[in-house]
Amino acid sequence: xxxxxxxxxxxxxxxxxxxxxxxxxxxxxxxxxAIVCIAAITFVGSSAxxxxxxxxxxxx
Length: 60
Fold this sequence. Notes:
The protein has one domain (about 20-60). Helix content is about 90%, strand content about 0%. The protein has two helices and no strands. It has helices at about 5-15, 15-60.
């Protein structure tokens, strides 16, 4: 094997287009997880607030 064939083999193994697509996919996945977490925290927060209000009213 000469240097040119090794260089061509390395270029074929490291396709730059796949890295960009992977980065976009990971960014979308992280954004989706963040949206789900924010929605869950909002739901749990309002539910917990209602429970604390009920407990506070019961103690009065």
